[in-house]
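# nightly structure sweep
# worker-07 picked up a monomer target from the shared queue
# config: single-sequence mode, recycle default, output format = structure tokens
# input follows
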Amino acid sequence: MESKALSVRQPWANLIVCGVKGIEIRSWSTAYRGRLFIHASKTIDQEAMGRFQLESPPTGSLIGTVELIGVEPFTRSTWEELSDLHLANTPFAEGFYAWQLANAVPLAEPINCRGERSLFAVADSQVNPDLSIQCRPGGAGIATVRNLF
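# output follows
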């Protein structure tokens, strides 16, 4: 079996799996609905790290799961209405989608895994450390969110 995964830069990945960020902003839509693994990419959003002050967040790893329950185009109105869920501090721009996320569950330990663009497949054996060849349990757990605003 395979599951789907989405690669997200830190600190956004942590904020998603901790249930703080309920809307992911994407420039593309998808028809997929269901469970998604959140992959913390190796690229870090340094400006956002300063804003959210996470300590040593994992990168290059699967760090949790969420349910993708809906995708809709942002409008100026929904951008403002959903600001507490998407957490962006940038002005509205056309062409972006609100990926609605629910039921965030962080993994007990990150699982090292190479990310990809778009939604990508993760073999179930990759998320079971006993069966994994390509992905192995990572180092430190999910970073703690400090001083959110």
